[in-house]
Design goal:
The structure holds two protein chains of two kinds. By secondary structure, chain A is mostly helical. In chain A, 64% of the residues lie in helices and 2% in strands. In chain A, strands 1-2 form a two-stranded antiparallel ribbon. Chain B has a single domain, classed as Alpha-Beta Plaits (2-Layer Sandwich), CATH 3.30.70.20. A four-stranded mixed sheet of chain B has the order 8-1-10-9. A two-stranded antiparallel ribbon of chain B has the order 2-3. A two-stranded antiparallel ribbon of chain B has the order 4-5. In chain B, strand 4 and strand 5 form a beta hairpin. The chains are: A mainly alpha, B alpha+beta. Chains A and B meet through helix 5, helix 6 and helix 10 of A and helix 2, helix 5, helix 6 and strand 6 of B.
């Protein structure tokens, strides 16, 4: 399977839209694989049911209120959109900068980017009680509303990722088209993150959001968490013999990760310094940020710093950076740190409202949590199925160092996607 | 639910005041048809109209000059800026804007005793759900010596304390309303007379307007709003407001028909004045010319249409 130009059809492979779908691998899959799929289906179904509860009973099924205008869905939107970026950056570096060591990751990276953007967008929709009114978004968009830009960018980016995946898998257009797609995809990815950051940063009504550093910090957080998740997924898929990677590839990835993590932390420290420096400090800003440093919101924010520093420290040492356990631990810690960061960012707009009223920390309701878990499960379900039936392995002729070609998927092991926190 | 009857079934002639037209549904229908037939044309046209309006807001305002020498008068500039910049051209008429009015309010915080009578009157007048958990007007109990919102108390028990001062905040009907700029679907806009309105049948419930508003003036109906049948104001929507954002409308159903707002009417100390800035003899116009006034979060350049005295 998985060749761009299959000459002899293999049993179980069905060709559709020029892709060789390895349906046979599903039939041969182990009970463990199917029990994992079954669990994901159940979680997804629970999420759908929770959404039905919101649609039928209204918004009060969620814990969001006037003082906490947005909640779980928005933290998730930022988180997933960010995770989607890392893959794109790695994929783009193959074609733009000749980072050949990342080529075996390219299909996986684009698949993950597409799926993550999909669940990010669906998360937005589940927040709307009258979701069908979304058509006004298309009919009468408001050009001064940043939501219009980030929403359309996310939609376009998702489609772009899936088209790109199709191009990579089918080999249509060859290296030239893949390169050209990168030229489109990378700016769109940056545009998506910029507009997502602008959803926060362009509000003078919310002091802690209204910072220009929000855009670069979104980009670095996105790339760091995305690369970390990609690294974890690469290890998992290697463990289950779906894909194989060289140790040097992981080392390169870990070095890239360490670089982005320290940049990300640096930008955060810059922002904190601006808020507290006596000549810059504004009473409202300082008071609000103190809620996150020493107040009730510290449990959300301090882990961002602590986990971030630990993750960087683990990857900083040249002698230990190549150890898989170190790489996986650091990556998982940083994905978790970025989740806390997104959750904190969401809270930063609401901890003290526009009229100065302090709000208790928001904790999502059961319905919101089930929707969030359901969406994540759906993403993981599609991922689990895709790694089984899609030819994600980059063929030898595309990458001379890809290693021996084996149909390892037939072992039928479940594929998990750890490191994604809820 | 029994109390939220559809608008079309209301006995319009019997309940609506003179000049009131409930044409939102007609508007929606026409937009729907237009969108269906010439969808490709509507969006660019709307976009172009808005951007053109935004660019020419001050230069080509359709409003007539307030007074001779308007350009030198800062108040006139504010009024001019409060023009049709954000007016998408498809108003939902509670009543036709009467003409040249530019509604504004002045609140004397020295006179305000924090009794919240304005809040209660507003709730009754505007069909605010008794179960909705919000009011359009929020009265803050302030510490003396400063305008420090962070130390203000919203849910105070005792009004009229001599060691505090009271600060009513509501929708400011800004000349540059961030909520209007932030609404992704143009479900809220500024009317020619300065009132910022919401189309409850169009609001998608994304709550971005609540994010963008620096005054905490917008509120979301997380539940279907309920009002006892005997207390329903037939001139104001109720059922349509479920799962949409709402806020102060300067009592558009009253003020466009010659009445003042419910809060002004209810204030026992006369701390609130409402009127037309374009009328030099109105309370607000006289107050703005003769008193030292200030506005909340003036540094945000939203140009609120509520001034404070005191």
């Amino acid at each position: 399977m998985a060749m761009t130009e299959p000459t002899t059809p293999q049993p179980g492979i069905k060709r559709f839209i020029k892709i060789d779908w390895n349906v046979g691998a599903l039939k041969a899959a182990s009970p463990r694989y199917w029990s994992w799929v079954g669990m994901l289906v159940i979680m997804t179904t629970l999420g759908v049911l929770a959404w039905v509860v919101v649609l039928t009973t209204g918004g009060n099924a969620m814990a969001q209120r006037d003082n906490f205008t947005w909640g779980m869905w928005f933290a998730d939107y930022m988180f997933y959109v960010g995770l989607a970026a890392g893959g794109l950056v790695v994929y783009a570096s193959v074609h733009l900068f000749g980072a050949e060591q990342f080529r075996p990751l390219s299909r996986l990276a684009v698949l993950m980017a597409g799926l993550l953007t999909m669940i990010a967008l669906l998360g937005d929709l589940t927040d709307l009680v009258r979701v069908w009114r979304i058509f006004w978004f298309v009919v009468t968009p408001n050009i001064s509303a940043i939501f219009v830009y980030t929403g359309s960018a996310a939609g376009f980016y998702m489609v772009l990722c899936f088209v790109d995946l199709w191009i990579l898998v089918t080999g249509v257009g060859g290296e030239k088209l893949a390169f050209r797609m990168t030229l489109i995809a990378l700016p769109v990815a940056i545009y998506l993150h910029t507009t997502t950051a602008f959803v926060l940063a362009l509000n003078k009504s919310r002091e802690l959001w209204n910072s220009a550093v929000m855009v670069p910090i979104f980009l670095t957080s996105a790339v760091a968490s995305g690369v970390a998740l990609l690294l974890i997924c690469a290890y998992v898929l290697q463990h289950y013999h779906v894909l194989e990677f060289k140790k040097s590839m992981f080392r390169s990835l870990a070095t890239l990760l360490a670089t982005v993590i320290i940049t990300d932390l640096f930008l955060l420290v810059v922002e904190i310094a601006t808020v507290y420096w006596p000549t810059a400090a504004k009473a409202g800003h300082t008071l609000r940020f103190s809620e996150f440093m020493t107040g009730p919101y510290a449990v959300q924010f301090l882990p961002v710093l602590i986990l971030g520093v630990i993750a960087f420290s683990l990857l900083a040492g040249r002698k230990t950076r190549h150890i898989p356990a170190i790489q996986i631990t650091a990556s998982a810690l940083y994905v978790l740190a970025i989740f806390f960061k997104r959750y904190t960012l969401m809270s930063m707009g609401f901890a003290i409202g526009p009229l100065g009223q302090t709000q208790a920390p928001y904790i999502p309701s059961l319905v919101e949590a089930l929707i969030a878990i359901g969406l994540l499960s759906m993403g993981m379900l599609f991922f689990t199925l895709a790694v089984k039936i899609l030819p994600l392995r980059v063929p030898e002729e595309e990458h001379a160092e890809a290693g021996a070609w084996e149909l390892a998927e037939a072992t039928g092991e479940p594929v998990v996607e750890p490191g994604v926190a809820l | 639910m029994s109390q939220d009857f559809p608008r079309d079934e209301r006995p319009e002639g019997a309940t609506a005041p003179e000049g009131t037209t409930f044409s939102r549904r007609h508007f929606l229908t026409s937009v729907g048809i237009a969108a269906g037939v010439v969808a490709a044309g509507v969006v660019p046209a709307a976009l172009m109209a808005q951007s053109a309006n935004a660019q020419d807001a001050t230069a080509t305002s359709s409003e007539p000059p307030v007074a001779p020498g308007a350009s030198a008068d800062p108040l006139a500039e504010i009024i001019a800026a409060d023009g049709p910049a954000n007016y998408p051209g498809h108003p939902v008429h509670y009543a036709k804007p009467a003409g040249k009015e530019k509604w504004a309010m002045v609140i004397d915080v020295r006179a305000c005793v924090g009794c919240r009578k304005c809040v209660y009157a507003c709730v009754e007048e505007n069909n605010i759900g008794r179960n909705s958990g919000f009011t359009y007007i929020q009265v803050l109990e302030m510490e003396p010596g400063k305008i420090d919102l962070e130390s203000a108390v919203l849910d105070y028990d005792e009004a009229g304390r001599p060691d505090k001062w009271y600060f009513p905040v509501q929708c400011m009907h800004c000349a540059h309303p961030p909520c209007v700029y932030g609404c992704p679907v143009q479900a809220t806009w500024k009317e020619p007379d300065g009132i910022v309105l919401i189309d409850y049948n169009k609001c998608i419930g994304c709550r971005n307007c609540m994010i963008t508003c620096p005054y905490g003036a917008r509120h979301f109906n997380w539940v279907r709003p309920e009002v006892p049948a005997a207390e329903i104001n037939p001139k104001v929507p109720l059922g349509e407001k479920a799962w949409t954002a709402e806020k102060c409308t300067f009592c558009v159903q009253r003020t466009r028909n010659g009445q003042t707002t419910a809060c002004v009417e209810a204030c026992p100390t006369g701390a609130r004045k409402f009127g037309d800035l374009n009328d030099p003899n109105s309370d607000v116009a006289i107050l703005l010319k003769t008193r030292r006034v200030w506005r909340l979060k003036e540094e945000y350049s939203t140009e609120p249409m509520i001034w404070y005295v005191g």
